[in-house]
Amino acid sequence: xxxxxxxxxxxxxxxxxxxxxxxxxxxxxxxxxxxxxxxxxxxxxxxxxxxxxxxxxxxxxxxx
Length: 64
Known about the structure:
four-stranded antiparallel sheet, alpha+beta, 23% helix
């Protein structure tokens, strides 16, 4: 099964800054940072406007 890819972003001085594109397991393994958001795994990383926090990403993956 192909792993879903997401883009991780963090808020810096009121703006979203990309951290990197990674698979969902790597995203959930990242250290907890305040303001960290991940693109929805059904969207295209770096292009979707649907952002999820860590818990929302985890719940979304459980439903798949």
